[in-house]
Amino acid sequence: MLKTTFLFLFISIAVYSQKIPSILKDTIYILELNKRAEELRYRKSDSIQIIALQALELSKEINYERGVLYSTYNLASYELYQGNSKKSLEINLRISNHPSLSKYPDLGIKIYNDIAQAHFIQSDHPKAFQNFLMANYLAEKTKNLNELVRINNNLGTMFLLLGDYNESMLYYDAARKVIDQETPVHIHGIILSNLGYLNMRKNNLDKAKDYLKQGLELAKKTNFSTIIAFNYLTTGEVFSLNKEYDKALEFYEKAEKEYQKSGDKKGISDLYFGFASVHYELGNYTLSKEFALKSLDLYKSFKLRSGLEKCSRILYKLAKYESDFEDSLKYLESAEAYSDSISKEQNKTNLSMLKAKLAFEEERTRLEETNLATINTQKKYIGWSLVSLILAIVVIFFIQKSSKKRKKLNTILADNERELHLTNQTKDKLFSIVGHDLRGPIISLKGLLDVSLNEENGESQFRRFGPKLQKDLEHIHFTLDNLLNWGQTQMKGSSMVPRNLLARNEVEDISKIFNENLKNKRIKLINSIPDNLCAKMDLNHFEIVFRNLISNAIKFSHEGGKILIDGEISKDKVLIKVKDNGVGISEDDIKKIWDYKEHLSTFGTNDEKGTGLGLMLCKEMVEKNNGDIWVESVINKGTTFKVSLRPCT
Predict the structure, then answer these.
(1) Can you give 184-239 as a three-state secondary structure string?
(2) Distance CA 68, CA 73 (A)
(3) Residue 638 contacts residue 581 (beta carbons within 8 Å)
(4) Which residues does residue 526 pair with via DSSP β-bridges, in sequence order?
(5) SS3 breakdown of the chain: % helix, strand, coil, rounded to 5?
(6) What is the pLDDT of residue 315?
(7) How far is 422 from 333, CA to CA, in rounded Å?
(8) Between these two residues, 251 and 494, which has the higher pLDDT value?
(9) Quick check: 285 and 314 in contact, CB under 8 A?
(10) Could you tell me if 529 and 503 are in contact, meaning their C-beta atoms sit under 8 angstroms apart?
(11) Cα 177-183-189 angle, rounded to 5 deg
């Protein structure tokens, strides 16, 4: 009886904002608008459109791609909850083909989920199955546990409504296995309510009541009207099956109050049929007919054949009781026609579902082959990286050799004692970094190549550990670059050609190097340096300094964080600041970062490695250009590095 309502209780994860701030045209505000619109499917679905349109307009004004896609998805959800499944499907199919959707897998999961719902309402079960599987694949790939719970619950619900209770239970079990403390309360509540509905369909009425009671307790903590209404509606049907009609009406009336809050027309159609069934059993035929006709009109607007069939059958009984044989025959013929249509569709479904699963498996294989091609490309990069490593070792060897020669000349060249002392310190620093940060990844690379070339499962092992190795090699490449620059400044000296630099343009070019890192950690980098701010510094030194500062900011920022780079002219100096809202630095560690003896090296928020050399190099470069660098930080609130340089002349 509750098929349509069930379709619209597929779980949606959302963050609810109690207060909307004054209108700000920024991405954070747009994101909060969309999250609120998404959540309204459980409270007041007819308000989704108002908020989604506002978010869409703001997104277009600032060319915010994710905001446009998210807003459009919410507009499709509005159509879905208003019973316009065809319109919803058209919108979601259009954005599912957007070339940039792959950048937002969390949004892709939502879109494929709603596409599946729309196909299910239209009784296209194979396409519904295929799109649920795609949503589930994306959730597994991104390790999104909340979405895994949601989509497995949806798959369980789909098979439950198709009458395949064993398959349904497998997916519900899979959903419950990944529930943890981070799982929102309403998700757990919906799964318990679904299990109550499943046991009702299997006629385990006592067990059904128990699950529904647990689910209702959790649902009431959320104030999500649609979820609470569904629970009341299912409980009412349990009492109706148990012939406790007064109790059934009591729960149907509670459900009606909740549906009036949410405006869920799909749930109301099932509720009207519930009223019609109970009043028929109680002999209230006038009321029964009134509710049955209301339910029939709603089911016609949704074109839901199962709903049309059951309404036609009860209207057939009522017309027969009234001796209206013409209407009685009409409703009976309609019921049989819908029944035949559903039966024929069901006969096709099993084979089509299997074909859908096979088609999805083929698509997943294609995606994995694409990933394998990417790995092969990465192998070539690894080869070039090995060459770079060998060259680096040669460079370090000559640095060591040069250091020894300087020691031998120390007795003759007393005036070079200070320079030689600094050279020794540099050598120790270089070897410390090589031993500490480069030796481990090289050994890992050697072991992985041995396994890859000499063992039967070498390719799979290479694919398994390849991404980690790539990160290690990126770290090595960055470290070698700093080593070479450090070695050049300390061992040989470096030519310095100060020039007038437009800071904003140079920082913009440097930040492009980190586009992949920023995307992986979902960090927003904002370059707010004024267009006309001009600093005097050697170009190579400027690039080295701000590359290291931006790298550090990314490294110690949390996922979804923000990095702000701005500048100003203060008296006779140009001040450029790199500010993050990451983990921060303690006062003790601030003292260590400028001291080469301490060799302070920590891991980033995603276990990114560091050497402690970058900031020392920044200090050297800035001071060589008659500037200054210092840091201000608060633990768990963020860090700001400030660089003071000469203004342009």
Answers:
(1) CHHHHHHHHHHHHHHHHHCCCHHHHHHHHHHHHHHHHCCCCHHHHHHHHHHHHHHH
(2) 9
(3) yes
(4) 564
(5) 70, 5, 20
(6) 93
(7) 99
(8) 251
(9) no
(10) yes
(11) 85
- CA–CA separation, 66 and 103 (whole Å): 9
Place of tokens 């990286």: 385
Rounded to an integer, what distance in angstroms lies between the CA atom of residue 142 and that of residue 195?
27
Decide the pairing of beta strands 562-570 and 524-527: parallel
The C-alpha atoms of residue 454 and residue 432 are separated, in whole angstroms, by: 33
Determine the Cα–Cα distance for residues 430 and 428; give it in Å rounded to an integer. Answer: 5
**In which region does residue 36 sit, left (phi positive, over 0), alpha (psi from -120 to 50) or beta (all else)?**
alpha
Q: Can you tell me which residue has the tokens 């017309």?
A: 319
3-state secondary structure of 642: strand
* Amino acid identity for residue 363 in this structure: E
List, in order, residues 6 or more apart from 67 with CB less than 8 Å away.
Answer: 27, 30, 31, 34, 55, 56, 58, 59
DSSP codes, 153-164: HHHHHHHHHTT-
Q: How far apart are CA 489 and CA 486, in angstroms?
A: 5
How do residues 340-352 score in pLDDT, each as one tens digit? 776 655 545 554 5
Q: Positive or negative, the Cα torsion across 466, 467, 468, 472? A: positive
Can you give the pTM of this predicted structure?
0.46
